[in-house]
Amino acid sequence: LWATTVLLALINPLCVRSFNPSAQNRRDFLATTLSTTLAIPTIAHADIEGVTTPSFTDAKPTAENTQEGVKLYTTKSGLKYIILQEAAESSPSPRYGNLLTISYKASIKLPGKDTSLQQYDSDNNYLIKHGNGRTIPGLDEGLHSMKLGERRRIIIPPKLGYVGPGVLGPLPASPYGRYRLNKLLDQMIEVRGGNVVLDIELKNILVDEADQGYYEDGSLTPDEFNRLRFNLQEKAKNARESRNAKAKNAAAGVDLLNTV
Q1: What would the pLDDT profile of 88-105 be if each residue is shown by its tens digit?
Q2: pLDDT tens digit sequence for 50-93
């Protein structure tokens, strides 16, 4: 899939002219684009077993009423959303590390008043690990402030969509769906604009009993991350030394038996 490359080029149109897939390695192109694109959101320290601590701000979103009388919320990152169905005030919100079940309809809206939503995927029971860095950043951010049972429309700008290293979901399961998504992303490149639009319902929040405690709701500081990495390395080192000591003791026992 070239979705990552396509959307990075959209954010930085200057790179489109010089991009030639047959002449330039994809990794080199991504590195060039990442170094020249300031709009790409930064991801905090990763990656321990796929864990990412997103660096989203806790600032409250701004709200405005559209001409249609709909309240549109905008976050500091540029994400926009509309609450389609409110949840009970006491309903919980997800924490990073939770397992979430959502239903969604995924579309792309190209610029222009006369353009309609073009759906490319949907799922009634989509299971994700919240905050593991394997979904598009806009979905992670939009879900984090939702409440259980809430429905909202999330309008994701290109810089929070299909960008970054690796393949980020949600992606269509069928080859035709992936082809349609890539075609729509190509159209976004051509017109230099557009948004990914997700209609989401948060259906379930589960505590992951297998979670090893690497997820937090705030970004780790560099010192905290380095300390965590050091502790893991020390634990692995101690386990390795223990195995080597047991192996030496076993070998010494065999030698002793051979000399008797």
Answers
A1: 999 999 998 899 999 999
A2: 444 454 556 789 999 988 889 999 999 999 999 999 999 999 99
Q: How far apart are CA 192 and CA 11, in angstroms?
A: 8
SS (H, E, C) the chain: CCHHHHHHHHHCCHHHHHCCCCCCCHHHHHHHHHHHCCCCCCECCCCECCECCECCCCCCCEEEECCCCCEEEECCCCCEEEEEECCCCCCCCCCCCCEEEEEEEEEEECCCCCCCCEEEEEEEEEEEECCCCCECHHHHHHHHCCCCCCEEEEEECHHHCCCCCCCCECCCCCHHHHHHHHHHHHHHHHHCCCEEEEEEEEEEEECCCCCCCCCCCCCCCHHHHHHHHHHHHHHHHHHHHHHHHHHHHHHHHHHHHHHC
* CA–CA separation, 26 and 13 (whole Å): 17
How far apart CA 118 and CA 123 sit, in angstroms, is 16
Peptide bond into 165 cis (omega under 30): no
172: left (phi over 0), alpha (psi -120 to 50) or beta: beta
The CA-atom distances, in angstroms, between 257 and each of 246, 248, 249, 253 are 17, 14, 12, 6
- Report the alpha-carbon distance of residue 182 to residue 4 in Å, rounded: 10
Residue 7 has pLDDT above 50, yes or no: no
| Identity at 139, one-letter amino acid code | L
CA angle 88, 79, 81 (to 5 degrees): 35
